[in-house]
Amino acid sequence: MRALTLFLLVLLLLLQWSLWLGKGSWLRVWQLDSQLTTLRTSNEKLVDRNLALAAEVSDLKQGSSAIEERARSELGMIKRGEVFFQLLEPRPAAAPAAAKPSAP
C-alpha cells in the first residue's frame, strides 16, 4: 500500500510539473500578461502621439496660417512692414525683510 501511495504522489508531481514550471506555466502566463499590459499602455500613448502629429501635418498641408504661426513662434519671424513689440513680464520685487520681533 505504501508503494502505491508513493507511486501516485510521484505521478501527481510529474503531472503538475508542466502546469507550474513548464513552458506554458502559470508563472509564465502571469509574466506575459503583465508584459502585455505594459505594451498596450505604451501603444496607446504612441497612438495618441501619432494622431496629434497627423493632425499637425494635415493642418500644415491645408493652410498657410499654421506655417505662419510656427514661423512667428519658433523662428521669431515677422512680416514685411510689421512692427514687433516684445512685452516683458515685470520682475517680482524682492521680498521685504522679515520684521524682527521686539523684546517686551
How are the secondary structure elements laid out?
Elements: H1 2-21, H2 26-62, H3 64-75
Helix pairs in contact: 2-3
Fraction of helical residues: 55-70%
Number of helices: 3
Let me know the average pLDDT. Answer: 84
Protein structure class: mainly alpha
Portion in beta strands: under 5%
H/E element order: HHH
Q: Whole-number radius of gyration? A: 35 Å
Subcellular location: Cell inner membrane
Function: Essential cell division protein. May link together the upstream cell division proteins, which are predominantly cytoplasmic, with the downstream cell division proteins, which are predominantly periplasmic.
Keywords: Cell cycle, Cell division, Cell inner membrane, Cell membrane, Membrane, Transmembrane, Transmembrane helix
Protein name: Cell division protein FtsB
Description:
Essential cell division protein. May link together the upstream cell division proteins, which are predominantly cytoplasmic, with the downstream cell division proteins, which are predominantly periplasmic. One of its GO terms (biological process) is FtsZ-dependent cytokinesis. Part of a complex composed of FtsB, FtsL and FtsQ. It comes from Rivihabitans pingtungensis. Keywords: Cell cycle, Cell division, Cell inner membrane, Cell membrane, Membrane, Transmembrane, Transmembrane helix. This protein is mostly helical and 104 residues long. The chain has a domain of 50 residues. Helices cover 66% and strands 0% of the residues. Helix 2 crosses helix 3. The N and C termini lie far apart (97 Å). The relative contact order is 0.04. The mean pLDDT is 84.
